[in-house]
Design a protein that fits this description.
Beta-galactosidase, Chain A, domain 5; Immunoglobulin-like; 3 domains; 38 strands
Amino acid sequence: MFVHLRASGVSLLLASSDDRLPHVLHWGRDLGEGLGDDELADLERAWRPPRAGAQVDAPVPVSVLPGQAEAWLGTPGIAGHRDGLAWSPSFVVRSSSVGPSSDDPSDGPPGAHGGTVRVLASDETAGLDLELVVELTPQGVVRTRATLTNAGDGPYTLDALQPALPVPAHASEIVDLAGRWAKERTPQRHAFTVGTHVREGRRGRTGADATLVLVAAEPGTGFRRGEAWGVHVAWSGNHRTQAELVPDGTRLLGGGELLLPGEVRLAPGESYASPWLYGTYGDGLDALAGRFHALLRARPHHPRTPRPVTLNVWEAVYFDHSPARLTELADLAAAVGVERFVVDDGWFRGRRDDTAGLGDWFVDEAVWPDGLRPLADHVHALGMQLGLWFEPEMVNPDSDLARAHPDWVLQVPGRTPPLARHQQVLDVARPEVAAYLRERVVSLVRELGVDYVKWDHNRDLVEAGGAGGAAGVHAQTVAVYALLDAIRADCPGLEIESCSSGGARVDLAILERTDRVWGSDCIDAHERHEIQRWTAQLLPPELVGSHVGAARAHTTGRVLDLSFRASTALLGSFGVEWDLAAASDDERAELAAWIALYKSERGLLHTGVVVRDDVPAAGLWLHGVVAPDRGRALYALVQRERPATWPPGHVRLPGLDPDALYEVAPHGPYTPGAWDRPAWWSAPVRVPGRVLTTVGIQAPALEVDHAALLTTARLPTP
């Protein structure tokens, strides 16, 4: 049987025979329409490899859930046992169906809009049932998941359930991301060699070091060209992503949840569903990322309203809260055009620093004798939304909550994990813990009219033992999802930001329950350009909080001009993290101009196609957003390094219609010095799209850590 799914320039060709699980014959560039079973059978024969030496006599194609029963000796897609038995299941397909993609607006059969293959299989000897789903969405994104059910009499211990997708031999380079706190999303490249390149996350959260998308690509693939395939595990707890090359040349990208010992023991009739494994293909990293962006923007719950300009008070006041201080900040914020005012850490009982109070989610009467309601009313009267910070999953030992319920902490019997930021982790999987947190958050949201919650998560889960001492990361992750879902059901319209020591909980599962992520605790614009540049490999800009900080960055000490800080924040969900009372009148006026620019451009920035490029010899980066109809684009030219030659030369403007004529003009409040401006800066020029994309335009001669904006607008056809 063959199934050929096509969508958005991508083909997914599946085959199965002899009641075996389906395998992928082709995933990548669209093969076109009109391929019937006879033609597909010929393709299968044309691509079938010869039998190499030292293999089994009758090689079996590697399925989406590979295992030793098909003579696969690499990483198994399923690992587990029933008291030492049933460790190598062999599934027989009982039924399969092909239907439209879950995101396909039409009710017709699968075709150019993708489709879904659903397979039910079982191993009667092992006592296991399997449901395997493989989908190609209308945006050209593959996603797959497996659900395993214990159909036997006794418990079944599951150690791993990890689907995988193949990539071709010319995908011989791996591109992934590393990072740490305040330095997330650092790219790294190396050859795709024999063996297994494994990226494991054992932090109980996605992790600042997580590779958001693990990519296999042609050598030298850049943003604009080179075939690339990437996978993402949509899970916010422990996870594993891998690229594997075995001696017969098979290359697989796969992943799933990383289960700790004994975390999943299925009783008879119980099931476990793996996280969704998402896969994208593109000619260039921009095309690969663009499919993720299109998929996210097609979600019914994707944020549709203009992303508000947000001011967060953290770097303005830290824990030094007072009604007068925050009221003044609210007034200054409204005056420059801020639309959402967020009260960060420090508002609740005993919270004068990070050593105490966490978990006691009651307004501190010593600091706020009249409560937070007067500030909330003032913020709303100024026409702004109100945001409030919580870190619900954590607790300080020095808190009323911890003293009353020491057993609520995730721990192994007889000892507590080492402290991190003076805090421990609450066992949210306990119903009483989840109920307490839900009541506290919902009560405050309703009482104060909170529009937005900044949901933080500031430590890794170390020795995370649940009730009874068994490993508890899986149960914790599921419980946090349920808690977020319950709070959103109780508070319709509430928006939630996922923050985790900055960008340490960024994945597609948490984004099913939140409306944006905090990209990093580092808002130094120089660092933020790289962080945002590579976060964009998964997320569109409207989902990534990006703020203007003080002139001297709090995390690095680097001093940067306001124009550079603001133009960097413009490329995300714009906000401010700055003590405006310490800013001068001129600085506040310039900030207001940038906020006005953001408001005028966010319709383009948050719906357009993200394009990236660089001019290495000039130390210049380009970040742009092109309207879906290619009628208009905004580009930021960022001088990241000081090059050996000068001036920088041409920079190409990708994404435009080659057959259209465009007017190119400078944009925004910042203007380079007179000697640094190219000739076209003083008056717009008209240039064909084909020239702009292939030859480009002279870049301004910027100093390091400066950025200039320009726009292109398509002119009417004569």
